[in-house]
Write a structure and sequence with these properties.
Length: 78
């Protein structure tokens, strides 16, 4: 009862194909594959570029002397 047989999976696959259609499923698969590939490429090059961008942002923030750092407080109801 806990596991499904191959026939259960075949029926589920047929229902999914009827609902979404094969073209839409193919597009979803290619989009998902492209997203995974882009994520992997970003992780590979992110180490060196990410550190450089973080250092540049920190330098830019230090150069802006006209920025005022404030803390917001909640208004108390009396």
């Amino acid at each position: 009862m806990g596991s499904f047989s191959i026939w259960h999976w075949v029926i589920v696959l047929v229902i999914v194909m009827l609902v979404f259609g094969t073209k839409k499923l193919r597009n979803i698969g290619s989009d998902l594959g492209g997203a995974v590939k882009g994520f992997k490429d970003g992780m590979k090059e992110g180490g060196s570029e990410g550190e450089q961008n973080a250092a540049k942002l920190a330098d830019d923030r230090n150069k802006k002397s006209d920025t005022i750092d404030v803390e917001a407080k909640e208004k108390s109801s009396s």
